[in-house]
Model the fold of this input.
Amino acid sequence: MTTSQRMDAIEMTEHRRRPFPHTEQAAAYLDMMAQVGVFQDTLVAANPETAQARQIQAKLAELIELLASSAVPEHERLYALGDFGSGESQALLPPLVVDHFDDDALHAHFVPGQFAMGMNQAMHGGVVSLIFDTLMGRMAAGLQGIPCRTAYLNTQYRHVAPVEQRLELHARVESIEGRKRFIVAQLLHGQTLCAEADALFVAVRQGQH
Done:
């Protein structure tokens, strides 16, 4: 594997989708990331006093310095490692639980926390699109894990998607034309359709980034 920060997309995809290692370091990393998620949700719900905010800022500065001392190139990181890159090892998205996955359809569920909120206990529209992109991109890759890039993603918002409640994600392949994968998806809260999307993903060629 090359040591360059900017790798061939196929090579990087193969690295990122490796199973998360079963080591003491990896277990500690997942515990740390779980606490990061709790911190994010707690952060957006709090109005700390001035002294508290300064204390938190100072502690964060210490943690940043500690983390910076262990920085590694992208292809060596534990962050977002795993088949979906959206589970317990990253902080960008709520962890997705995959219920079904084959060449034609993918079903998953998740519970967004306060950190994913836009306002009034509704999930931020940008987070909705981000989750669609993650799920639909994996659907485009299929069981073979073909690396793809997003060409476009259209999101239609139909109803408020609440935070701190279970939401369902359904994606399926609409058609495949050469390197092009046309994917459609829905986000549901119970029987309520919260959003739907259509997207085009294009399989990358060897040597592309």
